[in-house]
């Protein structure tokens, strides 16, 4: 079902990860990784366990400071012309011009607030003791703070804050409805079943009105039906709502079903970067997933002996 | 709450069983106590004489029987424990879930407003004594509400809260004695200065997590006290500051006998009680202001961010919340209320010294917040009344007072580890405001 849109050189990217390297002591978690995510695309980042996918997310969203490399994020298409000038300057963003951000220079909360990159977590991080609706309201902290004139106006119930509040409620209701949690809006988030919690986390990230949504294994632990619903939700976000998506996922039904473009990571290195069809048949990717040598796979692909793959150890789901 | 009737619909077999057990327990106690309590040797002329103490013996047996009966009948024999009913009542206090929740705070408020007049009518001789206790309780309610912002909402365990109380008290004392500023100007200044110190002390500790946060705030609390103790030229060291001006009646009149007095202003006979009642209403108003602002803040993005911070700091940052500023604002606002309470304390006492601001004060305020239930406003009131009012009223029990105090704390912690009123009321709702069970609510750093 992958769209036929071509990811050619003519399109300028929304997110551009360039020569990203991340070291933890002696461990090289990401090794000179470069890839782009385009506006309106669902880009998938896949790879075996421990390949460094979550680490890439943590670098993009500012939770880790990369050892080396540059992460550009542009709100407008022509912004990348200025990236070298911006890098040479001491600034972290080019707000006057065309809204270009260097994410590796920004603290985590500014990446969400100003650059508008939202994320979810591999192990869900909801505000468990707060209700579903409150979770979505917390996500709208920045605009609500402005509306409440940094609390002073809100304290006296000024009209500006009331308007801001009802606008925030509308947005929350919209996403509650989209993820099918309207009925549970007033229940504590920790009381929701697992699948609902995953969707709530996505809704919460969407309430920050991001330009790029980074999802870390959103289908993990979901059953077949839930994972099909997730596909639909992600297609809505990526294609109708117009928020680009960067997706880490092990579930190949999800990845192959909805992504426009896939980057494959193995031991921190990019081993492939192409459309789903190409990735599906790439021997390097199959080898990485099965934990065997590339030649073995090519051989296996040529001679269709079914047992061969199952015999090799280390296959990941 | 229809379930209350269930308690009354006991079944007879339980009653008979409990009675039987009570009789057996009483009999066994009687036998055992017969030698231990029933007889006593006393020195008499020509040797020792045995005395029989029937009264004490029967009393011991009676206590054992009654205790056993209460336990068997009310606790052990039942599926739903009496404690559960108490729980329901207490949770009702936190509001929203039941009608009780709305009535109790209003009833408490009405009682607080009428208290001076009721006391003057009922016990004119001791009105002053009781009103003083009520004033002290209200100071602690205000301090508890202030600390509740830091510990209960933002989830930052602060063991040095008394530092801000001290800053407020000394700010007022110094401003009033050296510059002759009036109480009504000093009150907000003291609050601002304490809030400022909240930010200054907040900065270095914000990077700390868990126990470290608690330890460093404790140390800061002590540092402030030690500075007050040793900076003799400014603070008077251990001598403290005396002759702190009393507050005026909003700058219109003082509370002295004479033409400029409150009594003269209103053309009523002079009474020393006027000042006491005025101070009582002043702290009541300050405490209610604290409560109003806190409740208001909880429904604003800032307050919601505090609670989110307590739940999950990393998620907060992923949603664009500047956690440093958010924590600092909690420290500053909490400290501000502490400082205002401090300046009230100074003006009421007329004398302050570092001895009033020892660690035990921080511990008591924290105990009020924790026993009341983290984040619960009404819980703080109940805990302050019990802890402060209780210890004052039982002052004649002397050292046993602290024993009872400790025992009470242990019992509450066993029965309700999350405090008396532990449910959380959501700050916003779509259809219905449902209380959130305490088990789901995170406690934040350092607990
Ligand atoms: N904070 C850290 N300190 C030290 N090592 C880390 C840290 N974070 C990640 N690593 C290491 O970096 C490597 C990549 O981890 P990462 O979590 O990015 O993998 P992943 O691709 O997300 O795997 P999975 O599919 O299991 O989620 C692992 O070897 C991991 O142990
Ligand atoms: Mg991962």
Number of strands of chain A: 11
The CATH topology of the largest domain in chain B corresponds to ABC transporter involved in vitamin B12 uptake, BtuC
- Provide the domain count of chain B: 2
Whole-angstrom Rg of chain B: 26 Å
Total helix count of chain A? Answer: 14
So how many helices of chain B? 18
SSE topology sketch:
The complex is a heterodimer of chains A (317) and B (447).
Chain A: E1 13-24, E2 27-38, E3 42-46, H1 53-60, E4 68-74, H2 83-88, E5 93-94, E6 100-102, H3 108-115, E7 117-119, H4 132-138, H5 141-147, H6 152-155, H7 159-178, H8 194-206, E8 212-216, H9 224-240, E9 244-248, H10 252-258, E10 261-266, E11 269-274, H11 276-280, H12 283-290, H13 294-302, H14 307-311
Parallel strand pairs in A: 3-9, 3-10, 7-8, 8-9
Antiparallel strand pairs in A: 1-2, 1-4, 4-6, 5-6, 10-11
Helix pairs in contact in A: 4-8, 5-7, 7-8, 12-13
Chain B: H1 4-8, H2 12-36, E1 39-44, E2 47-52, H3 54-76, H4 82-93, H5 99-122, H6 127-153, H7 162-179, H8 183-205, H9 210-230, H10 232-235, H11 262-266, H12 273-298, H13 301-311, H14 313-318, H15 323-349, H16 359-372, H17 377-393, H18 399-415
Antiparallel strand pairs in B: 1-2
The complex binds adenosine-5'-triphosphate (ATP) and magnesium ion (MG).
The site of adenosine-5'-triphosphate has 12 residues of chain A, from strand 2 and helix 1.
What features would you describe in this structure?
The complex is a heterodimer of chains A (317) and B (447). Chain A is an alpha/beta fold and 317 residues long. In chain A, 39% of the residues lie in helices and 21% in strands. Chain A has a domain at 1-116 and 251-317: Rossmann fold. Chain A has 14 helices and eleven strands. Chain A is globular, with a radius of gyration of 21 Å. The two termini of chain A are 21 Å apart. Chain B is an all-alpha fold and 447 residues long. In chain B, strands 1-2 form a two-stranded antiparallel ribbon. In chain B, helix 6 (127-153) runs antiparallel to helix 15, helix 7 (162-179) crosses helix 15 and helix 8 (183-205) runs antiparallel to helix 15 (323-349). The model of chain B is unreliable at 1-9 (pLDDT under 50). Chain A binds chain B through residues 61, 63, 108-110, 112-114, 118-119, 121, 125-131, 133-134, 137-142, 144-145, 148, 150-151, 154-155, 161, 169, 173, 176, 182, 185-188, 190-191, 204-205, 208, and chain B through 293, 296-297, 300-302, 304-305, 307-308, 310-312, 314-323, 329, 424, 426-434, 436-437, 440-442. Bound molecules: adenosine-5'-triphosphate and magnesium ion (MG). Residues 24, 27, 29, 47, 49-55, 122 of chain A line the site of adenosine-5'-triphosphate.
